[in-house]
């Protein structure tokens, strides 16, 4: 995992985009995660050095791959056994890879984040566990809010020594 300090400039740019976007269809958090999501895109692009595109299918394009950025808000540093989730309604997105980010937000202020890793889309769905709304994930005692797929952080590829674009 790579820890990243979130700057005021990052927060300001993300806040502007979040306000412009409003609530998106099928949002589990009804738009409350938009700020963290846009911060996640900025942080992912610092690693990938691509171009932010913000399409339905992917968020970042590099010379070789398209990436969809999956961001979760948190209140503490992630552990390797925490889950990386993709909502079941998002499985038709046409991207090559996923990159997972955690953004720490305390009292609605986001100050640091973690790049958790990346995985090819096909590989993610081969290895992830499918959970349905209302099901209790026995690994972490979390009641699932929407049908989704989960994969542990320690099952992702790291960025050390990997050409990710």
SSE blueprint:
Layout: E1 2-5, H1 8-21, H2 34-48, E2 51-52, E3 60-61, E4 66-74, E5 83-87, E6 97-106, E7 109-120, H3 121-127, E8 129-131, E9 136-137, E10 142-143, E11 148-152
Parallel strand pairs: 4-6
Antiparallel strand pairs: 1-7, 2-3, 3-4, 5-11, 6-7, 8-11, 9-10
Helix pairs in contact: 1-2
Which descriptors would you attach to this protein?
single chain; 165 residues; alpha+beta; 6-stranded mixed sheet; 3-stranded antiparallel sheet
Word description of this protein:
The chain is an alpha+beta fold. The chain has a domain at 2-82 and 93-124. Helices cover 22% and strands 34% of the residues. It is built from three helices and eleven strands, in the order βααββββββαββββ. The chain has helices at residues 8-21, 34-48, 121-127, and strands at 2-5, 51-52, 60-61, 66-74, 83-87, 97-106, 109-120, 129-131, 136-137, 142-143, 148-152. The strands form three sheets. Strands 1-7-6-4-3-2 form a six-stranded mixed beta sheet. It has a three-stranded antiparallel beta sheet with strand order 5-11-8, with helices on one face. Strands 9-10 form a two-stranded antiparallel sheet. Strand 6 (97-106) and strand 7 form a beta hairpin. The radius of gyration is 15 Å and the shape is globular. The protein starts with a strand and ends in a 13-residue tail after the last strand. 32% of the residues are buried. Residues 25-31 have low confidence and may be disordered.
